Amino acid sequence: MNTVIPIKYEWDVVNIRSKVREMAKEMGFSELDQSRIVQSVSELARNVVHHAEEGVVRVESIEGDKPGIRIVVQDFGPGIEDLDEVIRASESLVSTEGYGLRQVRDLMDDFAIRALEGKGTCVQVTKWLNAPAVKSEE
């Protein structure tokens, strides 16, 4: 099950959220994981609308021994000038720059980002079905 959804306008984010939630539900993700997946794709799609004007979201189900859902968000904007700086800022608890990326990284199991200045940014995230629960520090 693979879906490609264009992003250009703010209302596209609503459509993307709905389609991704339905896919995650059909795949058997818990309501909590559905919410994590939808929040992540929503943040990434909003970034496209606000920073790049247009792009695409590709959602694919991963079958086999380790099932999951992979979301690739590719924009066709200016790219991130200094990706390393944005990543560093996103890891800081005091900076608001890159906060959305940090949030997505925390909500999903796998996170990768690459940017080509002047050509766009691509973020790939994966949520594994039945992934072990994260242990909280006591």
TrEMBL record:
Pfam families for the chain: HATPase_c_2 (PF13581)
* The UniProt record lists the keyword Transferase: yes
Q: Does the keyword Transferase apply?
A: yes
Tell me the GO molecular function terms.
protein serine/threonine kinase activity
Where the record annotates domain Histidine kinase/HSP90-like ATPase, the positions are 32-131
> What does the UniProt keyword field contain?
Kinase, Serine/threonine-protein kinase, Transferase
InterPro entries for this protein: Anti-sigma-factor_SerPK (IPR050267), HATPase_C_sf (IPR036890), HATPase_dom (IPR003594)
Give the matching PANTHER family. Answer: ANTI-SIGMA-F FACTOR RSBW, ANTI-SIGMA-F FACTOR RSBW-RELATED
What is the name listed in the Swiss-Prot or TrEMBL entry for this protein?
Serine/threonine-protein kinase RsbT
Native source organism of the sequence: Melghirimyces thermohalophilus
Lineage, top ranks: Bacteria, Bacillati, Bacillota, Bacilli, Bacillales
